[in-house]
Give the backbone structure.
Amino acid sequence: MVRDGDSTGIGRRRFVRGAAAGLLAAAVPAGAAAARESDGPVRATGKRIHQFERDGDEYRHYEQFTSPDLRKAFGEATVEYDPVTLPAERVPAEVRESDGPSMVEYRDVGVFGTFDQHATAEQSIHAELNASDDAETDDAETDDHSPSYFGPLYVYKSGSVSERSAPVNVAWRRYLGFDAEGVRSKMVDDGDWGNIVPSSDRYILYYDGSDYVSKKQDKHVKKSTGITAQWHGRLYDVPTADEEDYGVVSAAHHDPWDHGHITNPDWQFAGSRQEFLDAWESLGSYGTENQDAYNGSDFDSSNGMLGIVY
């Protein structure tokens, strides 16, 4: 989720009770919004809507984003995401006290596109990085442990059109021999991390040798900072066809109490990256450093840096 200054958040939300919340009942068919594609991902300003329906002791959560910018680009003004089930403690008191379906809405900004459009945008960023590296060859030579990174740059929330939801901000060198399960096990067995609160899926795009494809996270690693708040990294194995030097990448962030299902929070991307690097420095004989990935401009709390574990 892309934050638009301080114009969003729980303080500015609008709560709607009961039957008035039936707006989300009319679903947008999957793929409908992609009927008319533009040349690239679109930055859209609009309204994000969260609807909650009680399901026993839990709640079914439905999300939509609607904007005239989307209609211009894709032929439909609304993007709908896959529903998720939430425990009662992660929904507002107003929802729990409501007799029927309830809705929270607020103004927001997002970057939307088909996976093909997002892949093209990532390739363009890498091309700029490549040109920048070539121009700086006469300057200080890059150390052997930190070659330039050309792997996945973002993670995406899948919907009728996919949304750029976070920057990839941590990567593990391939020669360390870790896959995503190995990274998680090291942090859980030798550190104070573990899976705390269930999380939804996000997707990276990677090159498989012939085309760009999407895949969801292989593992999660988390550390509690409150009852439902936590440091959280989705971990992705990256095939050698896409990135020779880095075998695992992560989108590290901090989940607030509602995990962004209600508010548009500060995900603390830069702080979370450093939390992961600090964790690995404390695990023993691992070095860490940062390099520019230029993937932070859409996110208030990201500085576009990639933290490297070597």
The two ends are 30 Å apart (CA to CA).
